[in-house]
User: Fold these one by one.
Assistant:
Number 1:
Amino acid sequence: MNTLPTVFITGASSGIGATYAERFARRGHDLVLVARDKSRLDTLATRLRAECKVAVDVLQADLTNPADLSALEIRLRDDVRIGILINNAGMAQTGRFVDQSAEGIDRLVSLNTLALTRLAAAIAPRFVASGSGAIVNIGSVVGFAPEFGTSIYGATKAFVLFLSQGLNVELSPKGVYVQAVLPAATRTEIWERSGIDVNTLPEVMDVEELVDAALVGFDRRESVTIPPLQVAERWDVLERERKGLLSDIRQAHAAARYLSKA
Ligand SMILES: NC(=O)c1ccc[n+]([C@@H]2O[C@H](COP(=O)([O-])OP(=O)(O)OC[C@H]3O[C@@H](n4cnc5c(N)ncnc54)[C@H](OP(=O)(O)O)[C@@H]3O)[C@@H](O)[C@H]2O)c1
């Protein structure tokens, strides 16, 4: 019997999710792989079972489909072998804000934020009860770059960072590890899926390098891992300034510049 926790990975049929699957399988973990494309999941599962001698379950699910999402929540609640959740499935935005359709906005927001939150919420109570477990949420550096012009996608990724930091505050004292991973441009299908030729981008990280770096952060129990950030202190300074802002905004009175002269 495998004594390592089983790893539940969404968006495991390609890119970052498939690479996490490979890396955790090589570490000896059993896997539960989730995505819509069952044949790709089956191919990956067959290879990892043969190469790594681990058990791999495949769950075909569209995370924007309420019935599929509910079934995954039940699995996360009930399967006590699952000790690591990699909340990775996501999609990018095609076009500017003014080009978006109602259905497109629904799909983007519900996949990148709602599904991720629901899956974390399904497993967190069990993790808290056992005083163990890890939740990894894949955000993006776009979450702090409104200048990049993909407002809705960026907003969903700002949500992922905020949620992860909030969960970290609540869950880490209970023994649950929460990590936000913030990649920059990484060579995966997400670009093609949103109509962008990845070869036109100036700096693109290979997916193996991204996931291996994220796993270094995971092993160190970092709460926020930004693999492309060269100067780690920049993040520390930003966090210090943000926390300074918090002490300054707890005031009973408006700031002097807003006091009406009348
Ligand atoms: N690549 C980058 O430059 C980059 C940068 C920053 C952050 N990220 C984030 O990294 C994560 C993984 O993306 P990736 O770059 O690896 O892209 P990817 O290769 O396109 O992978 C996306 C994964 O999500 C799955 N997925 C998409 N829609 C789904 C749905 N409705 N239900 C269930 N699964 C769904 C896809 O599988 P199916 O199509 O089989 O469902 C696929 O396995 C995303 O959250 C993305 O925002 C990527």
Number 2:
Amino acid sequence: MKAYRIAIVGLGPKGLYAFERLLAQLGKIEGEQEIEVHLFEKSGNYGAGAIYDPNQPDYLLMNYPNRNIDVWPTENLKPVVEHSPSFSEWLTNRTPEKVASYDDQFASRSLVGKYLKDSFENLYKRGIQSYRIIKHSCAVVDISKMEEAYKMRLKVAMDGEDQTLIVNNILISTGHCSWKGSFEERKHGDGTKIPEKSTVPFIYPVNLKLSKVQGNTPVAIKGMGLTFIDAVLALTEGRGGRFLTKNDDLVVYEPSYKEPSIIHAFSRTGLPMVPRSVDEGKKAYRPVYFTHDSIRRSMGNGQKPCFLKHILPLYKLETEYRYYTVAFKNKGLTLYPEDNANGLRRQILNFHKDYTEEYPFRFENMFRSVDIQNPSVKLGPLAYLRYLVEEAELGSEKSPFMAAAMTWGKISGLFRSVYNFGGMTAESHQMFEQNFRSQLNRISYGPPLTNMKKIVALVESGILNLDYAKKPNLLWKQNRWHLGVKNRKPVEAEMLVDARIPTNVSQADWSPLLKGMQKNELLREFIVPGKKSYNTSCPEIDRSGRLVDPEGNINNDITLYGTLTEGIVYDNDSLSRECNNFASSWALRTVEKYSEIQLNSKIEAP
Ligand SMILES: Cc1cc2nc3c(=O)[nH]c(=O)nc-3n(C[C@H](O)[C@H](O)[C@H](O)COP(=O)(O)OP(=O)(O)OC[C@H]3O[C@@H](n4cnc5c(N)ncnc54)[C@H](O)[C@@H]3O)c2cc1C
């Protein structure tokens, strides 16, 4: 009898979680047919994938604390391994003298990678005692349907023939669909070809990709999010520069003289992310105004919610409530939550009558480079960075700004249940993706405070320049990049580094695997229907992650999970085990299908 073959494509964190649940479910069943589990990870880092590569430098940090990291689920069906430590427990086991102090730290991504890899190895060792588990360190480049199974095409060597494998059931967890690898700036300038040596389209792995950047030459970096911080640190600390500290506080950057002469960073908004201290998010919070009931009350029956009309006003109200809760507390007062927004505003009005020097909270000011409590003066880049660091140090228990900025993270769980699977109107979905998603990420999901202090030290040292940060005019001419903003002399750069995280803006960004599957009529793009429907550039799945084909049929044998489903579900691009968890239902479905086949074969046997 031929083996029943199960494949997991992409063994980053989400592929690992799926593997873990599969082994747990397989442990429950018996059958005559042999089971083979095929694991595909093109980076060769099983469990960690490319993002948590254990060999990357230690200064590349996580953006959320250790207490949130745990490979093992809290489900009734226990993991098959004896030891299932959370990340903090795993760290404690490595160095027992520091017991229980790990929860409230930001670890390096490489260390998290070691934990993920270790968890994978333990599962693998346990799994091979019962099943054939085959690791393939190669990319799956195509999947097509056969009669009762699927043919996978594997790119084993760049210049060799592709190989094929027939499988019965597939989970695809390949992460970000593709790295963009191109700059739209190519279109501008003097029309001459931009040599490859003048661009870094994608920075990971940093040691390899950024080695192209020559020391002592000017560089421009596009994007000012988390990847920008990785790129800047790789070009400075990664080249032997040191951040000197006094009383645990970063004071100054000591250069190695191997870094670029200057780094000009820029983005669409020109604003850095809001950093977070390790205590941020520690205290549970129950939203007062942004609730299921209030969303339902604000909508008419049977209507889909509109982001601007039904969601945003409640988010603004929650933000205002959180801002003033801290502003009141700082004056020794208490703000009482009232069901009715007018009641809340009355208290706020009275507060301003008593404290005339306090500037009224304006939601819009969270997205401008101003001190929210004194917004009349626009802050320059360095002053704004220092402001953000000071506020983050106070944290959302003491800083009204931080309380307001962190609100999105507190309500995003409920927002997810509204957004997922096209829950909002098509216009709203589009509006959210294009105008709100990255701005909300900027204020709510920022880097560790330590990293932003390093950025401040680099601006102070003159190595990092943010004077051209807001949407400069960027041209390629006379063999160089030219950056210009109003009222400033243009500056030049030898190299342009793309430090943006690729997102699916169109199907053109899809990986060869997804493009191939689309051609083979296994999948279709998810479109939010409406008067003006919205193409999400995300493959369509049902509510348990099963792929939907061009005819709208649900494919019980192929499931998508993890970052590549971002856009049809929200907040999936994280290490979270619980958020949009399709792994558990996939594993259950897979063993049920196997059991059904076993039963049928027994009935059919004479
Ligand atoms: C630079 C960076 C920093 C981040 N920091 C954090 C953080 O601090 N905290 C957090 O929660 N999240 C962070 N994230 C988000 C991150 O995407 C998730 O934490 C997590 O990696 C998502 O897991 P995944 O398995 O869905 O995707 P991935 O981690 O991307 O894993 C997908 C894997 O599939 C493999 N693969 C892709 N295509 C194929 C193919 N065709 N065949 C075989 N293998 C394939 C890839 O090699 C990759 O290893 C970060 C992301 C980036 C890019």
